[in-house]
Amino acid sequence: MIPFEEALARLLATAVPVGPERVSLDDAAGRVLAEDIAAADAMPAFDYSSMDGYAVASADLAGSGPFTLPVRGESAAGRPLPALDPGTACRIFTGARLPPGSDAVVPQEDAARSGDEITVREAPRPGAWVRRRGADLAQGAVALRRGARLTPGKVALAAALDRPALLVARRPVVTVLCSGDELRAPGSPGAAGTVAESNSYFVAATARAAGAAVRVAPFVPDDAARAAEAVSTALRGSDLVVTVGGVSVGDHDVIRPALEAAGVTLDFWRVAIKPGKPLAVGHAELSRGGAVHVLGLPGNPASASLTFVLFGVPLLRALQGDHAPLPPRVVVRAAGSLRRQTGRAEFLRARLEIAGGELVARISANQASGAVTSFAEADALIVVPADRDRIDDGDRLQAIRLAEI
Predict the structure, then answer these.
(1) 254 to each of 85, 222, 248, 279, how far by Cα in Å?
(2) Per-residue DSSP letters for 248-304?
(3) How many CB atoms sit inside 10 A of residue 35's CB?
(4) Which of 15, 100, 111, 371 is the most exposed place for a label (fewest CB within 10 A)?
(5) What is the pTM of this model?
(6) CATH 2.40.340.10 fits 329-404, yes or no
């Protein structure tokens, strides 16, 4: 078995980013930038008021107050800009440009107005309540870097930079292939011993959340020839083929030999993790150049979900050129205890809560590899190092938030 960190590093080392495409801002959220975005102009592009009030020249208010100034003109956002006459104040509103000759704003609550005059008790300091040109970004500064995943805030920044469309990585195409004579579609009739297939729904939803375009292929029966044909079909037009089930060593596990028959080279098989040990990782060379990545997930639901979270999601992010393909880890206090065999890193499903001002991860009672319920209830994975033989209540360990995969 290959250690988890080595297996993940080997997988990501093979990820060559897919090509770019241009999309409108409406379709940009969640995508990965394939270009740097620089500020064509300073941001903001002009000095403006951050308050409703009066623009003044602070030099006109020398000495001790109070000061009385006539009000001349008005500056409103998006309107023509008046100049400030010496010894006067100009009415100004939030977001409006600062009139030439002024260098400070007196908030309206600090000014007593009577007719066309205001009285100010204290002189404002230069720059008071003024947002300066370039305070956010200097002209030419890189605002968004290639490899950044576009959050709503980043999309809004691109809009503020006057960019109606962005160059992003195209969506990697993922084909999901589930195998087993026992599988049937949810809601469809089936013989005794059949089960409603669920793994493809987890993999597809998770892959889409990671930015992929997903195709779910028909179920593959436990027949070697038909399995090889299904794999060959799935490879066409895919960047990643995810098989579920059939990668172990049972008499009816047909996917591993089907992968090899379809021209897939297995880079490694079996990773020292729990659950999910019988993970197969490989690739198929394309006639046009490049390669299709292949992940052979185990069939047990928790194992399939876990291995796709740990390996599939980082791979999809790396294929999009994401500069942070791995999910961040947080330190949590474990709520619960268990004894375990060493030798494999374990990823315990858990629920997060706040207790005593810190993040606590409550270990789920059912950690079975076949438990569909575990990922429905969990929102975090507690990372247990391979050499650790027990977890005690209150231990502090690293965890992965499932919302951040």
Answers:
(1) 86, 6, 9, 14
(2) SSSTT--HHHHHHHTT-EEEEE-BSEES-TT-EEEEEE-TTSSEEEEEEE-SSHHHH
(3) 15
(4) 100
(5) 0.91
(6) yes
